[in-house]
Write a structure and sequence with these properties.
2 domains, 39% strand, mainly beta
């Protein structure tokens, strides 16, 4: 929801129709930090950073791949191929990357031959 639309609703005559303060704070935070997030991906001893400067990355392990895109508000899974899991949940295009997670390439049948890739989203702190 756009910030201006949300703010317009704060003056609704019926208090039940007004948005909760937590939702307003979240909208302000998203707008203020737009384009300032970073996603740190650690794989194979190397570190890759997605940000406003580099908005897209594809990780490939064996026959599986995962493409992540930054839309200035969230890191979103754009494409997935093969057995890829995010915090033990099968990855689907359109999913948002949580603040801290582990991507697993391969399923449980592969046992110790799976590959684990930690990722962390860094977001500037805003005090409202």
């Amino acid at each position: 929801m756009r910030l201006t639309t949300l703010l317009d609703k704060t003056v609704h005559p019926n208090s039940v129709q007004r948005p909760p303060v937590a939702l307003i704070r979240k909208a302000f935070h998203a707008q203020i930090t737009s384009g300032q997030h970073r996603l740190i991906i650690t794989h194979g001893g190397e570190r890759q950073v997605l940000s406003n400067d580099q908005r897209k990355a594809t990780l490939r392990v064996g026959s599986s791949s995962l493409t992540i895109n930054y839309d200035q508000f969230n890191f979103v899974i754009q494409a997935v191929d093969g057995n890829v899991y995010l915090n033990n949940t099968k990855v689907q295009a359109g999913m948002s990357v949580p603040d801290s997670c582990v991507v697993t390439f391969g399923d449980s049948s592969e046992g110790p031959y799976r590959t684990f890739v930690p990722m962390t989203v860094l977001t500037p702190e805003v005090v409202l």
